[in-house]
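In keeping with the milestone schedule agreed at the kick-off meeting, the structural modelling team has produced records for the first pair of proteins. Each record is given below as a sequence line and a structure-token line. The laboratory manager (R.T.) confirmed that both were archived under the project's standard naming scheme.
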Amino acid sequence: MRLLLDAHALLWWLADDPALSRDARDLIADPTNEVIVSAATVWEIAIKRAIGKLDAPDGLAAALERSGFIEAPVTAADAERAGGLEAIHRDPFDRMMVAQAGRLRAIVVTRDPIFVLYGTETVPA
């Protein structure tokens, strides 16, 4: 199974935060699953951290590598698809995740209900 982590799921995983559901935690920990983090998610966290909107660890890229997570770059095709999505949701980072989840055939680990409105499969974070 391929899992694409939303920002909150990633941060909860890295912090071993009990807010992350047991099901999501088990899926992420399962070595038979591919766990993917979008470069856009790292960018989103960095921006929100810089403006004081959230607390996130230093060295996020290194933390991803230590966790064995796969980094998903943003491609031109991802950008084109995200930009062309129906305007159900305006958050550009979430729209990018919808586009990447489709390209990667991944299930998004999130608590955000907006993904389902785009037909994206999710696992509750």
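The second protein of the pair:
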Amino acid sequence: MHKLGVPGNEQYDFGAVGEGGVRLGDLATLPMIGMSDELVEEIAAREGEELARQVAAYRGSRPPARIEDRAAVLVDDGIGTGGTIRAAIAVARQRGASRVLVAADVAPAGVVRSLSHEADAAVAAIIPEPMMAVGQWYDDFTQATDAEARAALARRRHRRLNSWRAGVRGRRTPGPHLG
């Protein structure tokens, strides 16, 4: 998913784009803040290109995870307006997830309530009132670089592959005996 940010205040989103052509937004309010249809299209095209670049950089040639008839758990470090996570919910539904669950570190109460109607469940560890910005709840809210994201994904794939290999070979370590 990729946020569609308001020019000059990109952290405030008016919508989001997602894989599979998903595009969501609060288009009714845009004329009130001086955004033309042309500007909206320009931002959506630019963010769609960035999303495609990130998918290619992070996933490579691997297909998307198969979630059809499975529960999709969507985790976010923080939800502000909910635009990006709503796009993620739409993508999960489009891909046939049997259930969609949303979990966030921090989100406003009203957004958690509204997401509970779009997903099968939505929770947040911290629900501040009022909530000004997600970043205020972190000591360091710096965006991860592409290199950091690729390294984290590679570590995860490596651990998962090694775990699978150990299980196939019967090398699972037995748990403690209770008795």
